[in-house]
Amino acid sequence: MPDLTPAHPRGALREAAARVDAATPEDRDRAVDALRAFAVLGVVLGHWLVTALVADGGSLHAASPLRDLPWLAPVSWAFQTLAVFFLVGGHVATRGYGSARARGESYGGWLRARLSRLFRPVAAVLALWTVTAALLLLTGADFGTVHTLVKLALSPMWFLLVFAALTAATPLLARLHPLWPLVVVLHIDLLRFGFGAPSWLGWVNLAAGWLVPYTLGAAWTRGELDRRRSGWLLLTGGTAATAALVAWAGYPASMVGVPGASVSNLNPPTLAAVTFGLAQCGLALLLRERLRRAMRRPVAWAAVALVNLSAMTIFLWHQTALMATTATGLLAGRLPGLHTPPDGLDWVAARLAWLPVFALVLAGCWATFRSCEQRGRGRRRSRVVRAHPPQRRATTAGARHV
Predict the structure, then answer these.
(1) Which of 110, 246, 279, 332 could cross-link 100 (Cys pair, CB 3.0–4.6 Å)?
(2) Tens-digit pLDDT profile for residues 284-322
């Protein structure tokens, strides 16, 4: 008589992970996907930990625990991972463009495919928040509160615009040495902080600052960063330079913006943010082999593959998940860690307890809007997994990740 006992959930999970593992192209460099997933999740967790919405009467205003608890600055060191994302983005884009040219694909066709994945999920976010903002204003909500919510919800868009611009310029940047944009950042900061140049000049660094890790990714594609010595040089040099800039040049210790601070390391990027990014990129390069070994485990790889397949959905909706939880929580009153000022250890403990709730709400957003990111993939093979598992496994030599 056949066994009709339902499969154990853990066993079903392992079976599903094994199928994803088997469906992954043999020549895919899984370390690249792992780095991208960790970078996206780092940004998400960082925002959830340092973004506070304080209820004050009938309004909400943004605050940060980094203002009243400056000793929490190391949180920004761990979770401000945008440099790693740009490193991987530059590597994947230059490798992908080279492959497209080898196939005879035009620049326009390659770029449309790249940008469509970036911007396809944006329409849903813009539509939802346009309607939400209009309804809030029509029902008498405080304008300052609506402005704060919309600003936080749409703040990830700046990243997409910069990343899209660098992606479009990939053919011009493929051979650019990272030292050139680094020199631009150095001179811009020298003019701003040393000679009193206008603060708006710093926005030049919005492109130049993220060009540094992006062109490092191109150097990775060219094989110039294959030696471990390159990773160690970036890690030690970037760490030493950042420590010196914070200790003796007056740069903030926090690698993200702090409300009320006179200088932000991130908006626009400063030299300290760029050197810190160099250290992060060095560490990422040093971890490549360990990540490749770790990603041989089907469960670990399945989790990373899932994040990569929905990276933009996760990135675009994580702030909405935080704000939806905050707004809903107001129905129960002023809740610790959600609506209270982030000025003590009690707030930190309460905020940590809210993280699973944020994750659950984000999972709901993902289930609702993931089709916006994945629409159109049925017409081509997925970048992460293929529709049918291969008949045999091959070596990882010449790993592909485009």
Answers:
(1) 110
(2) 999 999 999 999 999 999 999 999 999 999 999 999 999
3-state secondary structure the chain: CCCCCCCCHHHHHHHHHHHHHHCCCCCECHHHHHHHHHHHHHHHHHHHHHCEEEEECCEEEEECHHHHCHHHHHHHHHHCCHHHHHHHHHHHHHHHHHHHHHCCCCHHHHHHHHHHHHHCCHHHHHHHHHHHHHHHHHCCCCHHHHHHHHHHHHCCHHHHHHHHHHHHCHHHHCCCCCHHHHHHHHHHHHHHHHHCCCHHHHHHHHHHHHHHHHHHHHHHHCCCCCCHHHHHHHHHHHHHHHHHHHHHCCCCCCCCCCCCCCCCCECCECHHHHHHHHHHHHHHHHCHHHHHHHCCCHHHHHHHHHHHHCHHHHHHHHHHHHHHHHHHHHHHCCCCCCCCCCCCHHHHHHHHHHHHHHHHHHHHHHHHHHHHHHCCHHHCCCCCCCCCCCCCCCCCCCCECC
Query: Whole-prediction pTM value?
Result: 0.90
